[in-house]
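[recover] target loaded
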């Protein structure tokens, strides 16, 4: 888990790209959902462990970090990471590729990035099918990304699909960073509404999202919230 903040991460990322020091670095904005799933699925746990770094996407993760002695850890959400990196790299020769969302969402994100963040360095978009992609399809996508001149690929799917997708895609591309950011594509294009800041700060963004999408999220949160509490109580007392 990354110990720091979004500003530090963005500065490091931009510096390593400009200095050509990063090659296919995998980064995940990891939420409570990802941590809980990793504890019950060894394959996914190994996937996250093989990433360059995992950003703490949510206040509960930073609280646990503080309890375990990482006092400098701050929340570094996928959306905050995306906005910070895109705005700060707007005047650099850093090219971005958007991969994710329903058909047309990635193009909406490209337009929104130019308008809201002043970054027009988006060199390509792709909306993956809902089914698993074949090896040939990954190879074709890799060719598309490599030919675009992208330095950074943003992947906006759901956990664990996006991390597994990123790992597989990394076999076919040569970029600097591949970053998974969850629902950022929908949040930044206003297709999903984010919780107010005060709700985010008290760690109840999950409850806000549950109220907005109860049918889709109830089963997920009914499992991961108590499981996350149990896993960390066990870890702390141990």
């Amino acid at each position: 888990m990354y110990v720091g903040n979004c500003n530090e991460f963005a500065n490091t990322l931009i510096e390593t790209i400009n200095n050509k020091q990063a090659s296919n670095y995998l980064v995940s904005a990891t939420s409570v959902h990802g941590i809980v799933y990793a504890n019950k699925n060894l394959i996914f746990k190994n996937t996250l462990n093989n990433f360059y770094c995992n950003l703490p996407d949510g206040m509960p993760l930073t609280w646990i970090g503080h309890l375990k002695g990482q006092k400098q850890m701050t929340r570094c959400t996928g959306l905050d990471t995306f906005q910070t990196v895109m705005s700060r790299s707007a005047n650099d020769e850093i090219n971005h590729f958007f991969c994710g969302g329903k058909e047309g969402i990635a193009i909406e994100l490209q337009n929104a990035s130019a308008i809201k963040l002043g970054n027009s360095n988006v060199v390509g978009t792709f909306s993956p099918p809902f089914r698993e992609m074949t090896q040939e399809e990954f190879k074709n996508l890799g060719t598309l990304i490599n030919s675009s001149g992208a330095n950074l690929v943003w992947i906006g799917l759901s956990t664990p699909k996006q991390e597994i997708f990123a790992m597989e895609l990394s076999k076919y591309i040569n970029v600097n960073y591949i970053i998974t950011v969850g629902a950022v594509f929908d949040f930044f294009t206003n297709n999903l509404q984010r919780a107010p800041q005060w709700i985010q700060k008290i760690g109840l963004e999950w409850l806000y999202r549950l109220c907005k999408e109860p049918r889709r999220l109830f089963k997920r949160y009914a499992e991961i919230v108590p499981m996350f509490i149990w896993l960390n109580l066990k870890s702390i007392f141990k």
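[recover] notes: The first helix runs from residue 6 to 18.
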